[in-house]
């Protein structure tokens, strides 16, 4: 954490709003905005949140689904408990963690993922890591979701977005690219929502077949 970063954060309205309103991250407002526009998560939805720590998105998802819904969160790091949210700690790229998730989350309505790999500063390496992570999340989503379900992922602007849409877009009825207002202008992150899974996927919980 540099002094600059701490100063910028202090003046960030979304950071301050999150503290006042009790959200664990400013990222909570990104999901609120996206969900306000696309209605991916609804009352009663079953939601898988990949890369959930510290838990802002899980809080928003949990509030939205209410007592009739379900939220399962996964992260590499430990996450402070949230009432109503089940947490699995582990690397979503690890086959054992994938197996756990696939066994646990059957016929889910929505997969959300704000996961981003730790950046090394090497653009080629970082791009490769980010693409691999998005690929894993989208492959899991196609196994976890019910027909008609949706997935929201974070990725980075550039050819990566088009590669992901080309590979996975055809499985869904629609694809939207979103840059929420609360996403920092200097960040080249972008969110992609794939809505309405077309095919019934296999419901077995065997190893993940990456393309
Ligand atoms: C930007 S944070 C998510 C913030 C969260 N949406 C919120 O609102 O609090 C990204 C998270 O992705 C997690 N992550 C990155 N790679 C992962 C992986 N392979 N498996 C599980 N979690 C991962 C990181 O540990 C980090 O906590």
Structural write-up:
With 211 residues, this protein is an alpha/beta fold. It has a single domain (27-197), classed as Vaccinia Virus protein VP39 (Rossmann fold). It contains seven helices and seven strands. It has helices at residues 3-10, 13-21, 28-38, 56-65, 95-104, 123-144, 159-168; strands at residues 46-50, 70-75, 85-89, 108-113, 145-156, 172-178, 189-197. Strand 1 (46-50), helix 4 and strand 2 form a beta-alpha-beta unit. The model has no long low-confidence stretch (mean pLDDT 91). Bound molecules: S-adenosylmethionine (SAM). S-adenosylmethionine binds at residues 24-25, 27-28, 51-57, 74-77, 91-93, 114-117, 133. S-adenosylmethionine (SAM) is lined by residues 24-25, 27-28, 51-57, 74-77, 91-93, 114-117, 133.
Keyphrases for this structure?
single chain, 211 residues, alpha/beta, Rossmann fold, 7-stranded mixed sheet, 7 helices, 38% helix, globular, binds S-adenosylmethionine
Oligomeric state of shown chains: single chain
Backbone CA Rg:
16 Å
Binned strand content: 15-25%
Shape verdict: globular
Bound molecules: S-adenosylmethionine
How large is the count of helical segments? 7
Number of domains: 1
Q: Termini, distance in Å?
A: 37 Å
Q: What pattern of helices and strands is seen along the backbone?
A: HHHEHEEHEHEHEE
With strands numbered from the N-terminus, the spatial order across the biggest sheet is 3-2-1-4-5-7-6
CATH superfamily: Vaccinia Virus protein VP39
Question: Remind me, CATH topology?
Answer: Rossmann fold
Number of beta strands: 7
